[in-house]
Amino acid sequence: MKVEIEESKLQTAYANACDGVKDFMESLFGKKVFEAAKPTLDDYKTIRTYEDACKALGEPIFEDPNNLPNHIIALMKLETISRALWGRNFQPKPDGEGSKVYWYPWFALWTKKEVEDMNPEQRGALLSAHANTGAIAGFGYLYATNRSSYASANFGFRLCQETEEKAKYFGQQFIELWAEYLKFNFTVGNRLK
């Protein structure tokens, strides 16, 4: 019997494995296969976990002595991950003239099927949202003028990335942390493998 495994999936499994499993995988496939899986500031795709970000930055893993709320801890971890994803040479700086574009992870709160399955009243409330301002910071939201509520997400610079590709990776790979930070009651999809 022959089994084929994509190298990227093997490296992801290695990066998420405990030390004993890593030793087993190294003895089975050889250490060289996993050298590329070590977190580095030179390749953002090697940052697969918060712990990887800390390792790449040379920072200790955050221990919470004060019992901070979970969404605050998640934000702190996301900021650390964001810095690691920026890499060794990127220095983000706000641009007062607006000539530089930064990317923020984009989240869909409803799948196409969920929208199709909504009753007419729910769908009407969703689709009657003001279309021109529904995603200012890359976070979709409803804008309801003269209604019972108003929600806005205008800026998240510390969590921005310099490319759309990196922002997408940041949002998908760390979706559980984003969900904890944003505190919405939605189901979490799959991470990138």
Q: Roughly what percent helix?
A: 40-55%
Number of helices: 9
Q: What's the end-to-end separation, in Å?
A: 25 Å
Task: Say what oligomer this is.
Answer: single chain
Reported for the largest beta sheet, the result is: none
Q: Which secondary-structure class do the elements indicate?
A: mainly alpha
Strand content: under 5%
Query: How many β strands by DSSP?
Result: 0
Summarize it:
The protein has 193 residues and is mostly helical. It has 9 helices and no strands. The longest helix has 17 residues, at 70-86.
Description of the molecule:
The chain has helices at residues 7-16, 19-29, 32-35, 50-57, 70-86, 112-117, 120-127, 164-173, 175-182. With 193 residues, it is mostly helical. The chain has a domain at 1-38. The chain is globular. The chain starts with 6 loop residues before the first helix and ends in an 11-residue tail after the last helix.
Strand-helix topology:
Blueprint: H1 7-16, H2 19-29, H3 32-35, H4 50-57, H5 70-86, H6 112-117, H7 120-127, H8 164-173, H9 175-182
Helix pairs in contact: 4-5, 5-9
